[in-house]
Amino acid sequence: MLRLILLSLSIISVSGYTPAGRTSQVCQFVRNAIYCFGGGHNNNGLFTADYPEHLYLDLSKSLELDNFAYDAWKDISISSDGFELEKSCNAASTILPDDRYIIFGGGNCMNYVTLSNNTVVFDAKTQKWTGYNQTAVQQNYEGFGVYLNRTNKALFWGGRSTTGVQNTNINPIFYSFDATNPSVFFTFTTPLGDGMKMPGSGQSVLGPDEKTIYHFGGWEGFSDPAAANFTTYASSFRTISLYNTDTSIWSTVTVVPDIIPSNRTMMTATLLPNSTSFLIYGGVTHLSAAITYPCEDYAYLFDTLSNSWSVANISSENGAGPRFGHSAVLHPNGDLFIIFGVDRSNTNKNDYHILDTSNIQSFTWKTAFTPNSFLESPSTNSTKSTGSGSSTTTGSKSGTTKDGISGGAIAGIVVGCVAAIAIAGILFWFLRRKEADKKDTIYEEVNVSSIKPPLNPTSGIQTENIDIERRINESNILVVDNNKPDIPRIMMEPVKPQGD
What we know:
Layout (H helix, E strand, L loop, with lengths): L1 H12 L12 E5 L2 E5 L2 E4 L2 E5 L3 E5 L4 E2 H4 L4 E3 L16 E5 L3 E5 L14 E5 L4 E5 L7 E2 L2 E5 L4 E5 L2 E3 L5 E3 L3 E5 L6 E4 L9 E3 L2 E4 L5 E5 L2 E6 L4 E6 L4 E6 L4 E6 L13 E4 L5 E5 L17 E5 L4 E4 L11 E2 L2 E4 L4 E5 L2 E2 L8 E5 L7 E3 L1 E2 L37 H34 L60
Antiparallel strand pairs: 1-2, 2-5, 3-4, 5-7, 6-36, 8-9, 9-10, 10-11, 12-15, 13-14, 14-17, 15-16, 17-18, 19-22, 20-21, 21-24, 22-23, 24-25, 26-27, 27-28, 28-29, 30-33, 31-32, 32-34, 34-35
């Protein structure tokens, strides 16, 4: 009965979690789920809060965006092994084999203090983290990372290295981690091409040939050792930086000038399935203490065969719209999740939207997600669910209400009430039945001195249930019979072996 009650209570506790609106987080698709970590609240280019949360979105189940888009998240920040997560913004990340992903660098959004573990790996099968504090690795933020399947290496580079916000410079070093054992790594540097500067921010993505890295947007810069800081320049989309992972050579390609996106950073770049094109989504022209808004020309396609840009045709405006500091996570079925970020109203969003990329000529926003039956369900060995948050969001039907209670939260309350009523009914029925059993019990007087002990009272495990009343009848008394039973006997006689 106790187990039944605990199970019912667990049904109440497994409710959705509404995260706070945020930017600059890490999100990856692993083991049929989306995992997001970190991020912060961006107020016109300045961070005012950190969110050291590890969030989980189960994609083995259907999602209806109009009802539960926010409350489908679960907060799994507390892992089964008690690993303590550190605040992190603008970290680099990539997937690893065996249902894992790695986070490199980052740090507290507001002051970028030194991390205890500058590299961490999450295993989605065991739901556990592993931290690596490599003293030879500089702590980067606004850098990049890719996984090279051909060499089984995770490669990180670019961005800014820091031991504190007052000591910042461009990081020219590459770090190559063994994907099987990330504690093993080596570093190297490569000369840049003529006129090139080490990139930072923006996006770097592995191309369709799985060996060429394409870098889009962001800023380029060089360090100034005397001033212990850096100088940056907006990176133009007229020129795309390429890095060949086989030859370790940088190069550039000049694109066809018919259509050129405006300069931007904090956007996403996604290699679309079964194509040679990248989708560039969102971004912001410049971050400053003034009011900051995302680029209105927020969606472009870059074709790697023709080296040309085109405006992405998104047929409906009922989706994510312009935003920056978001994440873009591609599902194997072609659904692209646009997650969090800052929208055109300068609001830090806590939502996600789903873009159907199956038709590269015309993208559409979806109102629901249907899982793939062939994908393995994610492991949820260690989860922590909390109540709904109070962040107010705008621009989406699936957002929280004006009073701060979302549709998912209301549904959770209804489910909780129904479960509570069910538990109360079960308890009432159990107590009534127990009372009835007491009334029906018949007690018989037994002369215990006439009861003979068992033949071997010390053999076996002696158990007694003190919660159950017993009735002893004379027919159950063990009586010793000294008469030996008649049983068949086999008579054996010696036989002389043959051959002797």
